[in-house]
Amino acid sequence: MSVVLTLTSAAIIAGISMATATSMAVISRVSNGTFDTAEGIDTMYADSEILLQTLNEYDCHFEIISENEYWVKTSCGNIRYARENAGQAFKMYLDEIEDVDGLLENLKAFELDYGRNVQAYTYNHIKDNLSENMHIDEEKVLEDNSLFLTISIE
């Protein structure tokens, strides 16, 4: 028996619509470089390890305040990612925004990278946790960068 799994990047599933929603939220809330720091913007970032990995790969200058709060300094302005507990996705809080267009471009690219890291984590987790009676018969990368896996179960 075979099981077919398609791992569509979180960037494809949620990132594109979330990037649009995030961009619109940023545009609507940023005026002349000011932003209501008390009100956060929802993100798709739920895994702190993957968020930190993506921040490192993106070569961001950031400070870890706690397991649930990170402060990121960019050339476009400051971003704080915070959540109340590990079961929630992070909210994004903006401060001292100097370049809204640059910030939007960076956020879109960052969200795609985060989505790719989620996909890679999921792929590795599946491979590492296959039972002894399971093996991967086929792996393909599709045009939209989804991963197509055929797993045989004996």
The number of E-state strands comes to: 8
Structural class: alpha+beta
Rg result: 18 Å
Number of helices: 3
Taking pLDDT < 50 over at least 5 consecutive residues as the criterion, the unreliable ranges are 10-17
Mean of residue pLDDT values:
79
**Biggest sheet details:** 5 strands, antiparallel
Distance between the termini: 7 Å
The proportion of strand residues reads 25-35%
Strand order of the largest sheet: 2-6-5-4-3
Tell me the overall shape. elongated
The percentage helix is: 25-40%
Helix and strand sequence: EHEHEEEEHEE
List the helices and strands and how they pair.
Layout (H helix, E strand, L loop, with lengths): L1 E6 L2 H20 L11 E2 L5 H10 L3 E6 L2 E5 L4 E5 L8 E5 L4 H29 L5 E8 L5 E7 L1
Antiparallel strand pairs: 1-8, 2-6, 3-4, 4-5, 5-6, 7-8
Helix pairs in contact: 1-3, 2-3
Fold and architecture overview:
This protein has 154 residues and is α+β, with helices and mostly antiparallel strands. It contains three helices and eight strands, in the order E-H-E-H-E-E-E-E-H-E-E. The chain has a five-stranded antiparallel beta sheet, with helices on one face. Strands 1-8-7 form a three-stranded antiparallel beta sheet, covered by helices on one side. Helix 1 packs antiparallel against helix 3 and helix 2 (48-57) packs across helix 3 (100-128).
